[in-house]
Amino acid sequence: MPTSPQILLQGTITVGEVTRFQYFHTLRRLWPFTVVAALFLVFTIPLGVFVMVSGVDPGWRQILTNSIPFLVWLVF
Q1: Which is nearest to 34 in space by CA: 62, 17, 26?
Q2: Is residue 53 part of a domain?
Q3: Structure pTM?
Q4: Number of domains making up the chain
Q5: Per-residue pLDDT at 16
Q6: What sign has the CA pseudo-torsion 69, 62, 64, 50?
Q7: Which pLDDT belongs to residue 15?
Q8: Are 37 and 74 in contact (CB under 8 A)?
Q9: What are phi and psi of 22, to 5 degrees?
Q10: Letter string b/e over residues 2-32, b meaning 16 or more CB atoms within 10 A of that residue's CB
Q11: Looking at residue 56, what DSSP letter applies?
């Protein structure tokens, strides 16, 4: 069985190049999460302010019970 020729590469890599590589590959996977988190903040903060100003009792216990799993998912 014939062997394939080997390619030998030599060089140095700087910390800046490694950091740039990590940022590009990590942030590429985090864009969907970032968009979901930003939309969550954009829509829930005004809604929360509106509910507080309106004076209607929305049932905070039920709201917190239902929102805690989503908030935990955002943290992880």
Answers
A1: 26
A2: yes
A3: 0.40
A4: 1
A5: 92
A6: positive
A7: 94
A8: yes
A9: -65, -45
A10: eeeeeeeeeeeeeeeeeeeeeeeeeeeeeee
A11: -
Residue 59 forms part of a structural domain: yes
CA distance readout (Å), 58 to 2, 61, 63: 75, 9, 8
Q: Which residues contact 62 (CB under 8 A, 6 or more apart)?
A: none
Along the chain (76 residues), what's the average pLDDT of each consecutive run of 10 residues?
A: 81 91 80 84 81 73 80 78
Does residue 1 form part of some domain? no
What confidence score (pLDDT) does residue 1 get?
60
Quote the domain boundaries for residue 44. Answer: 27-75
The answer to the question of residue 37 being in a domain is: yes
Count helices and strands in the chain by DSSP H and E runs: 2, 0
